[in-house]
């Protein structure tokens, strides 16, 4: 049958029969070789019949691809003139080093070794640096730069401990980094970040009229110092300082945060009376405004105290259980009567009522004096006097704060500052291991600088960073991102050196 594919067994059997019918002695005499040698060769041929008679694909055999075959090195010069003594520099053995080029590009997948040729002068011992050695040295320096950037990111953004950072580097690059290197790099980056925050007030920027200041109290075991934070209305953290002596440290911090291009007009804080004194000692002539959230909390606290401190006039001999019952009923009645007034006070600070906020507070106070509206207990009369003192003290500031919010869109609360406090507090788990307040302050400065360059992915400031919103001139600042500001620029390596 034509074009039929014959199996190997079918081919091997007739050939083996033909080999058995060969007259070995006669063939050996004719060829001039011993009969035993010819018989040995025929046995080897019999064993290899299956490989010889197997079906082969038609056409030429496929050649190996050029990528699979290693490129043959070109002819190398065996001797070089020594630049020191003029002698001959010859090959002086080889040694293996880690392939830093592959490590930099591929991480743990590039853990390989490369062979380096040593060239040395026989006369003076001068060693000529080869091109591969220079290439690996540059890649090693770039690898360390990239590892330092990863350590800074894990410490000042992810908030990882030293051990966790060490595990992260080992997972990415399959290389061990010492704990001491991570700690020294953390302190060095923190000090540079502290200097970068100081330069913010010296850079050209958008006009900022508000200076928001507050203290946060990170949990650092038995330490008694707090952390003072100053930002502007754009959300840019301008100063971070560990406060051990409130009056002295806060005054120095407020004096330092004001510079050539940052001259705020208003000082927005909570109700702490010490901040106004610190502002005056710092030599700042700012208008001190209070946060509306803390003002509302103070008003709610006054109403709660009026209900809690109500007294009961009962005849003698009434059992204690009955007195407690009547006191609870009187508190419930007073709370029911004060609830509409409290709702009026809260409504005064809601949007749309900014222009009549103080008038509504005065109306609530006048209703507290009216016996037809509310029972005139001693606690209610005390509440009316406290509200009047509160209005006399903060009335003008409330009007100015709400007027600025309507006309210029400035903040009325320190919510942005409280959010910064919420970002800094989790890092106290790391900061508590720093022995001195100055090193702890440097660490928090690094966290603050990282937050300034962080581009938000949600919220009203989505897609922007605090540096962009404040329009800081990056040319005056001297850096375009966090890493370049702390001396960890992105490694720049010429790929031409790797492809030679």
What is the number of strand segments? 9
Report the order of strands and helices. Answer: HHHHEEHEEHHHEEEHEHEHHHHHHHHHHH
Can you tell me the CATH topology of the largest domain? Nucleotidyltransferase, domain 5
> Which CATH architecture of the largest domain is right?
2-Layer Sandwich
**What's the rounded overall pLDDT mean?**
84
From the alpha carbons, calculate the radius of gyration and give it in angstroms. Answer: 42 Å
Q: Taking strands numbered 1, 2, ... along the chain, how are they ordered across the largest sheet? A: 7-6-5-8-9
The rounded distance between the terminal residues' Cα atoms is: 60 Å
- CATH homology-level superfamily of the largest domain: Ribonuclease H-like superfamily/Ribonuclease H
Largest sheet: 5 strands, mixed
Query: Structural class of the secondary structure composition?
Result: alpha+beta
The tally of helices reads: 21
| Spans where pLDDT lies below 50 across 5 or more residues | 65-75
The CATH class label of the largest domain is Alpha Beta
Helix percent reads 40-55%
Strand % is 5-15%
